[in-house]
């Protein structure tokens, strides 16, 4: 076993890291699997932008199924399992799913910004074919970036703690190929999507603030549903950024301190990686919470509409009976006069 694939952590830390990853993997697979089953059952009822949430569930469960077993096995083995080939596979899968996730969330933010109207029901409408094209483009974009290291631009390598693989951040100062790849990846797949997420949701918050009175007075139910769907997207996006920011910070530190990795404890480099993996576990809970809340809102709106309809029918029938009685009374009065 090469030294770079040996764990830099103690056996105890490796064991508990493996236990943590088992729990995260189980929760991720069950939670995101439930999201996909639920979406499949009510597929015809899904709003077009909700397909992006489904796509996010696909990336989360894909990451849990294709990557976590290797990390778990390596943690319990106290060394990376499989050598160069499995490291290359793990880095490739990590690149595909992580880029797909952040770009999906960025696109979700832009679409929510355009869909959120001021006042309600004046936003841009997206059809399913458009969303499908966007999702296909996201996967192609992620696949392209994942393939670049295989073609010689950049490379994959083990993490400093030895139990996972990703982009070889320490190669930033070693060659022009590594430096340009990492710089382009950082800007196009991290910085720009993150800025897009932040600005779109600030824009949505401003739109909703301006439309608050219109939502209350014009279409309360529609406005509430739109706000809840938007809040769900905000929570998923902010959760993703919070989970991955420490990992990005440590990776950027590794870029500029390639020859002084010993200054940062392997345990410190492990924690952001474990924290980032948690993002695949909590998204389903956010989705189901807001799905249930939105469904109650829609059912309440339907009941109110049905009540209004029945009430309107009662009023119509009462008014009809009143007119009939009035007509009958007038007719009887005329007859009595004629008899006299």
Automatic annotation (TrEMBL):
Organism of this sequence: Neogobius melanostomus (round goby)
InterPro entries: GPCR_opsins, GPCR_Rhodpsn, GPCR_Rhodpsn_7TM, Retinal_BS
Pfam families attached to this UniProt entry: 7tm_1 (PF00001)
Domain G-protein coupled receptors family 1 profile: 31-287
One BP annotation, GO: phototransduction
UniProt-annotated location(s): Membrane
Xref: SUPFAM superfamilies: Family A G protein-coupled receptor-like (SSF81321)
The keyword Membrane is assigned to this record: yes
Membrane topology: Multi-pass membrane protein
Record-given protein name: Opsin 8, group member a
Molecular function terms, GO-annotated: G protein-coupled receptor activity; photoreceptor activity
């Amino acid at each position: 076993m090469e030294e770079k694939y040996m764990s830099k952590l103690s056996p105890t830390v490796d064991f508990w890291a493996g236990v943590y990853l088992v729990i995260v993997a189980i929760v991720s697979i069950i939670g995101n699997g439930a999201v996909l089953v639920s979406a499949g059952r009510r597929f015809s009822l899904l709003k077009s932008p909700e397909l992006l949430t489904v796509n996010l569930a696909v990336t989360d469960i894909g990451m849990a199924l294709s990557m976590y077993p290797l990390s778990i096995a390596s943690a319990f083995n106290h060394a990376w399992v499989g050598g160069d080939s499995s490291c290359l596979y793990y880095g490739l899968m990590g690149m595909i799913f992580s880029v797909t996730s952040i770009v999906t969330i960025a696109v979700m933010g832009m679409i929510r910004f355009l869909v959120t109207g001021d006042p309600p029901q004046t936003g841009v409408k997206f059809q399913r074919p458009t969303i499908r094209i966007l999702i296909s483009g996201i996967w192609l974009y992620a696949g392209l970036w994942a393939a670049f290291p295989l073609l010689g631009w950049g490379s994959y390598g083990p993490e400093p703690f030895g139990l996972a693989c990703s982009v070889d951040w320490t190669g930033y100062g070693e060659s022009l190929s590594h430096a340009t790849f990492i710089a382009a990846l950082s800007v196009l797949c991290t910085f720009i999507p993150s800025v897009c997420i932040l600005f779109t949701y600030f824009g949505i918050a401003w739109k909703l603030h301006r439309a608050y009175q219109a939502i209350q007075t014009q279409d309360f139910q529609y406005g509430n549903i739109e706000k809840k769907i938007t809040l769900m997207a905000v929570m998923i996006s902010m959760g993703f950024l919070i989970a991955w920011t420490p990992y990005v910070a440590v990776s950027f530190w590794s870029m500029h301190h390639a020859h002084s990795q010993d200054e940062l404890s392997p345990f410190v480099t492990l924690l952001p990686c474990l924290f980032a993996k948690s993002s695949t576990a909590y998204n389903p809970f956010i989705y189901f919470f807001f799905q249930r809340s939105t469904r109650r809102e829609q059912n309440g709106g339907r009941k109110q509409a049905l009540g209004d309809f029945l009430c309107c029918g009662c009023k119509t029938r009462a008014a009809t009976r009143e007119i009939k009685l009035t007509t009958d009374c007038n007719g009887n009065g005329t007859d009595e006069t004629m008899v006299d």
